[in-house]
C-alpha cells in the first residue's frame, strides 16, 4: 500500500496508550515504506508530554523563560493541560533559544550552544518520539548517530569489521563543514513530507526552525540550519543526511563500484571504505557534487583519502615507513596485525587531539573546584575517570587510558598541593590519600570485536 494512510492509531479503539499507538505506527512504517501518516499531532497529549517531562534531567538549564523542571513540576498537571490546549488550538509558539557560550578546553575559543525553554524541550521530545517511530524503520543499518540502541562503539565495531574482513584498501575520511547551521530547510520540509502528511506536525516543526536565538536581549533568526540546542535537532539532522547522503550511497554510488564499498556514519562524521582506488577517488569527487545540491560542503582540513588495510601495511613495511592513520569518533585508527602476526587487523587509540582536549577539560575543572572538600574532589575525579574508561576503554587502547590516568593523577596532586600554605603534598602522601580515596584503575571495558553469530 503506497497511498496515504487514512487511519492512524488516533482513530483506533480507545484505551490504548501512546506507547501502543507508536508501536502501531512503527509497524505500519516498517511494512509499507511509502506510507504517509496524516494523523499524528493528536499524540502530543498529556500522557506523552508527562513522560517527556519525567525523562527531562533535573539539572537541565533554563531557557529564556527561566522556568526550571522543579518550578514546572509544582503545577505539573495544570501546566500540561494548558500546554496541550495551546498545541491543539495551534496557539503554541516556540520561544527563541537562549544563547550560551562555553569555553573550549585547551583553547581560548568559546563554543556557542542554544538552551530551549522548558515547554519547547517537552514538545520537541514528544515530536522526536512520534517521528522516530516512523523514521527508525527507514534509516539504514550503517547510520549510528543519535539513534536508540546504537552507540559510537557500535559504529566502531561495524567499521572495524568492514576493514578487517572486507578486502578494504582505501579510506575516505570526511567531515561536513558547519553542518547543523547549513541544513536547507526547504529540502528538510520535502524530506519530512515523504512520510508525514499531518500539516500540524509540519507547521510546529517549521515554527521551531524559525524561533531564532536570543542573545543580549536581541532575537536573531537564521534562514538555514536546524533547531540550535534543540532536542529534535539530532533526529532532523539524521533525516536530512539519510536522504542527502545515505540513500544516495547505498542505492546509487555503491552499486556503481567495481569492488567492495561501505559508508559508516555517526551524525555528520562519516568514513567510506573502498577496495578499489578508482572507486575511492570517484567518491571524493561525486560526494562534493552530491552534497552541494543540498547546501552542504566538505571541510577540506578534515577530509582525505588514504591507503589503509593489509596492502597498505605491507607497502609501508617494504619502504620502511609507517602507514597512514585516520581519526573517527575520538580514536586514531592504525594498521596492525593479530597477535600472531598472521593477519591484518585495524587497531585504535585515543586520538592526540581528543586526549589533549579531555586533559585540558579536567585541568579547568580542577582549577574551578580545588577549594571544595577533599573527599568530594576525589569522588568526582573517580566518576570522571569511570566515564573516560567507559568510552575510551576499548580493545587495544590500554596504553592511552593508562597514560590518561597517570596525567590526571599528576594534575590532581599538583592542584591539591596548591591548597595548603606549606605545599608539602609529595607523592608519598598523595599515594596514601589515593589508598584512602581509591580511584578506579584503567582497564578495557568495551570489546570492539563483533560477537560470533
What is the overall silhouette? globular
End-to-end Cα distance, whole Å, is 34 Å
Mean pLDDT: 92
Largest sheet: 4 strands, mixed
Order of helices and strands: HHHHEEHHEHHHEEHEEHEHEEEHHHH
Helix content: 40-55%
- Taken as a percent bin, the fraction of beta residues is 5-15%
Give the C-alpha Rg.
25 Å
Task: Kindly state the number of beta strands.
Answer: 11
Low-confidence region ranges: 1-13
Based on secondary structure, the structural category is alpha+beta
Strand numbers in spatial order across the main sheet: 2-1-4-5
**Count, helices:** 16
Task: Break the fold down into its secondary structure elements and pairings.
Blueprint: H1 18-31, H2 46-55, H3 69-73, H4 76-88, E1 97-103, E2 110-115, H5 118-135, H6 152-165, E3 170-175, H7 179-182, H8 185-193, H9 199-209, E4 213-215, E5 218-220, H10 233-253, E6 261-266, E7 269-274, H11 277-292, E8 304-307, H12 310-318, E9 326-328, E10 331-337, E11 344-350, H13 352-369, H14 374-392, H15 398-417, H16 427-436
Parallel strand pairs: 1-4
Antiparallel strand pairs: 1-2, 3-7, 3-8, 4-5, 6-7, 9-10, 10-11
Helix pairs in contact: 1-5, 2-5, 8-10, 10-11, 13-15, 14-15
